[in-house]
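From the thread on structure requests for the teaching lab: each student submitted one protein with a one-line request. Submission from student K.M.:

"Model Bacteriohemerythrin from Thermovenabulum gondwanense, tokens only."
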Amino acid sequence: MIKWKDDYKVGIYEIDNQHRRLFEIAEDTYNLLKNEFILDKYDKIIELISELKDYAKYHFKSEEEYMEKIGYKRLLSHKVEHKDFIEKIDSIDIFKIDQNQEAYVTELLDFIVNWISNHILEKDKKIISE
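Reply posted by the TA:
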């Protein structure tokens, strides 16, 4: 499982703290996937999706406001990536989750981990370096 480490710091205290929360949501998703005692995970999956979406909106707004404040030249392309993230979460068909809960938890976890690896390490790090 992906764990927070200093490599993920972008050097902006507020944003780094918000990124840590995304790691916590990924950890919660991983724990749900591995929990063999919860047979019906539907409600927990819905909670995680909702939490991820709500927190991402909060974080993206905060990050975009910071980028705007410093005149970050890649703000528009960054906003598009944020929009794509929310659209991906919105596209989850909650009515199909019940058919294969494990697959949906795995897909959600992969999505979060890939976002952390690709977006934070590649895109967000550029905020302070450019």
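TA comment: The chain is about 75% helix and 0% strand. Residues 6-129 form a domain with the Four Helix Bundle (Hemerythrin (Met), subunit A) fold (CATH 1.20.120.50).
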